[in-house]
Amino acid sequence: MAVSIAPVANLPAVGPEPIPASPSGANSDDGFGTLLANAIRGVEAARRDGTQAVERFLSGEGQELHTAALAVQRAELAFEMFLQVRNKVVQAYQEIMRMQI
């Protein structure tokens, strides 16, 4: 059975989801909430893609092992990055709350 290997140039780009530009009339309260919701959706989409890739590999639907492994690793890295950003936001909030007025 011949296995076809896709060239590296044909692989999709890996990186965070682009941040949509907010309309000029949007207030600043909407900006952070929207950014946070988009980040959560991006992490969840990466997790779902990784899960589906593993399921396709295990069911023998033609998914290659390295593609499934990359999808799982991408999901793990997205989650770790989101977790670190959350930790920094909580740390900044705690620092602001400790400030004396």
Structure commentary:
By secondary structure, this protein is mostly helical. It has a domain at 30-98. It is built from two helices and no strands. It has helices at residues 28-59, 65-98. Helix 1 (28-59) packs antiparallel against helix 2 (65-98). The longest helix has 34 residues, at 65-98. It is elongated. The model has no long low-confidence stretch (mean pLDDT 80).
What is the chains' assembly state?
Answer: single chain
Low-confidence stretches: none
- Count of helices? 2
Strand content: under 5%
Largest sheet: none
- N- to C-terminal distance: 72 Å
Task: Provide the fold topology.
Layout: H1 28-59, H2 65-98
In short:
The protein has helices at residues 28-59, 65-98. It has 101 residues and is mostly helical.
Keyphrases for this structure?
101 residues, 2 helices, mainly alpha, single chain, 65% helix
